[in-house]
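Hey, sorry to bother you again with one of my protein questions. I've been staring at a protein lately and its backbone has me curious. I owe you a coffee for this, so here goes:
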Amino acid sequence: MRILMTGAAGKVGTLLRPRLAKEGRTLRLSDIHPLDPVDLGPGEEWVTADLADAQAMAEAMKGVDAVLHLGGQSREHPWADIVHANINGTQVLLEAAREAGVGQVVLMGSHHAAGFHPRPESGADLPDYAFPRPDTFYGVSKVVMEALGSLYHDRFGMNVTVVRLGTCNEGPADTRGLATWISADDLTGLVEAGLAASGYHVVWGVSDNPRRWWSLEEAKAIGFDSRDSSEPFAAALIAEQGEPDLSEPLHDRAGGVFTLNELGGKW
């Protein structure tokens, strides 16, 4: 099996590469930034490509069985940058996959597609398919990503899973992360589930943290089993930063500080 991983030079790609490696699998890594060939591991290939370059993506897609799309402009940027990398880039990628007959795609979306959703007053989890409420131009691009994934599933029969990714680091960096964190191992498990899932799915990318408030029902439905939790980090973070005030936008809104900062800025 050959998987095309776009955005492979980024933070998430760097975390996932060794975890997705397995016997009989080839990872074709792609990014706009070249990677030194000496940094390639066993079973890895490299292609330098701009997502919005149709010819380059067609070449990258040759012989591919599935796509893990991590690439694009991360975080908030001016509109033109977001459109080129995240909107045009995703459409070009999906069209290249369609033309190459690739039927399995995992798109790395973001919680910023639903960033202005507050915690449900009922205490229930925020649903997997919560209506888009983007908090930034970046968030808008992730809403478009979800829509494009839906279109390519409904019109062309492509199996597409969109991950509304939370916070993926080696550990949560602050008390907000106690709710939004997903471990790299759990994200790998969620990606593996998406690579095997049939149909179209939108899932929250979050570990089964006791403090989470985003649903894991759809993720579990496609076979995801969270093994990690942010709670072992809680005591140290709370001692340093204090118990979080869940009424503050940082903790009450899915997008946190992204709902407060200037729209279109480079953060």
Observations:
- Strands lie at 2-6, 26-31, 44-48, 66-69, 104-108, 159-165, 200-205.
- The first strand starts at residue 2 and ends at 6.
- The chain has a mean pLDDT of 96.
- The radius of gyration is 18 Å.
